[in-house]
Amino acid sequence: MNTTISKREKEKQELSFIMTCLAVICASCVFIALIRSLSIGEESVSWLQRLPDLFTLGIMAVCCVIIFRMLSCVRHKQVFTRQNAHGIIAVGTLVEINGIVQQVCYLWMPEAKAIYQAYMIYILLGVFFIFIGCLFKLAVYIKEEQDLTI
Questions:
Q1: DSSP structure class, residue 80
Q2: SS3 at position 109
Q3: Between residues 47 and 136, the one the model is more confident about
Q4: Which of 8, 13, 40, 65 has its CA 20 to 30 A from that of 114?
Q5: Phi then psi dihedrals of residue 34, to 5 deg
Q6: What is the pTM assigned to this prediction?
Q7: Which Pfam families does the record associate with it (predicted)?
């Protein structure tokens, strides 16, 4: 029994470490994107050319907040909760919206040449996160059903 408890604690510590790493990576991406948008420095760069990057930066900041909220739940040993499932789906939806906005900018704004076809990656990642969020939601439902039967 003692090994089971220590195993569970170790698993929760590993999950907390992974969530912390994800939060650090997300915050680093926001910081790097902010520095990149500030250091463009060319006089000929208009605000229309920076619009896709600034939109992505805003989406990344919101995703960081959602990931930090999920990390808080994990630290309180609440992993399989509806809040975390909705957080994963929200991140996926935001990434999906970002991909769609990037595609619109790429097609209708000739000034925004810096984004190339990165919107495909955003759309694919958004669908992936939404799928993982739905699986997570199903896991929460199964966990709740199991808790009721015990």
A1: S
A2: coil
A3: 136
A4: 65
A5: -65, -45
A6: 0.72
A7: DUF2975
**For 35, how many CA atoms within 13 A lie in the half-sphere containing its CB?**
6
Q: What share of the chain is helix, strand, coil (3-state, %, to 5)?
A: 85, 0, 15
Q: Rounded CA gap, 36 and 95, in Å?
A: 20
* pLDDT tens column, 73-106: 887 888 889 999 999 999 999 999 999 988 888 7
Residue 111 to residues 2, 71, 108, 115: CA-CA distances in angstroms? 63, 38, 9, 10
Structure tokens of 102? 């990037």
Token code pair at residue 28:
């680093």
Neighbours of 139 (CB within 10 A): 14
The letter for the amino acid at 97 is: I
Tokens of 101: 């906005």
The answer to whether 91 touches 125, Cβ cutoff 8 Å, is: no
User: What tokens appear for 107 in the block?
Assistant: 């097609």
